[in-house]
Design brief:
Layout (H helix, E strand, L loop, with lengths): L1 H25 L6 H29 L5 H26 L3 H23 L12 H22 L6 H26 L8 H10 L2
Length: 204
């Protein structure tokens, strides 16, 4: 996701630079040279920043090229399936307290897995916050986002809103785990991320 944002920035800068260069051709008296040079420098900086991030991600997982790491990630599939089997029983009960408990079980599982995977990254990889603080802040922000969305959709703040909001939070946490596994798998030669991802998405 971040790389695509950088690519968009690069494209915008390059297009802007080309447009100014064309204008300059037809209006040589204009003072466009400094702007074009600045845009060129910005494009270079974005490229360097992307390169640094890629190297950093690869360095993070250099020491993880071991069968046990691949095995640990593969076991997440069965763990996820087991958690969802139990949670679904609670959801199907129709009892609000049980349904909330099932949701809490799933979110607790996602949180535990994310923190487990995050241990493979430097303490400052996710900013100035610790891994647990970053995750808590992220979950809180997602809850707030989906509750605001539920209000706009006139879902209120009751049981129905909770179901909709929780589904959104669980979806986002699932995506966060996929993101970490994709980075960790960069240097795991024995690990097929595409195959794992297919199974992960079906493990409900």
């Amino acid at each position: 996701m971040k790389n695509s944002k950088y690519q968009v920035i690069e494209i915008i800068l390059i297009v802007t630079g080309c447009a100014l260069a064309i204008i300059w051709v037809f209006n040589p008296e204009g003072t466009y040279e400094p702007v074009i040079v600045l845009i060129g420098l910005l494009v270079s900086l974005v490229a360097v920043w992307k390169s640094v991030r890629l190297v950093k991600n690869r360095q993070v997982v250099e020491s993880l090229n071991e069968p046990k790491q691949s095995h640990a990630i593969k076991t997440l599939l069965d763990r996820k399936s087991s958690v969802f089997v139990l949670a679904r029983k609670k959801w199907d009960s129709g009892i609000t307290s049980n349904m909330r408990s099932g949701t809490e079980d799933v979110i607790s599982f996602y949180s535990s897995v994310w923190l487990q995977l995050a241990k493979n990254f430097p303490s400052d990889h996710f900013g100035k916050l610790s891994h647990s603080e970053y995750l808590d802040e992220y979950i809180s922000e997602r809850y707030e986002f989906y509750y605001e969305q539920a209000k706009r959709d006139d879902c209120g703040e009751g049981a129905m809103a909770f179901v909709i909001v929780s589904a959104g939070v669980m979806k986002d946490l699932d995506a966060k785990i996929i993101e970490l596994v994709s980075i960790i798998s960069l240097n795991l030669d024995s690990f097929d991320f595409g195959h794992w991802l297919q199974k992960w998405k079906l493990s409900y």
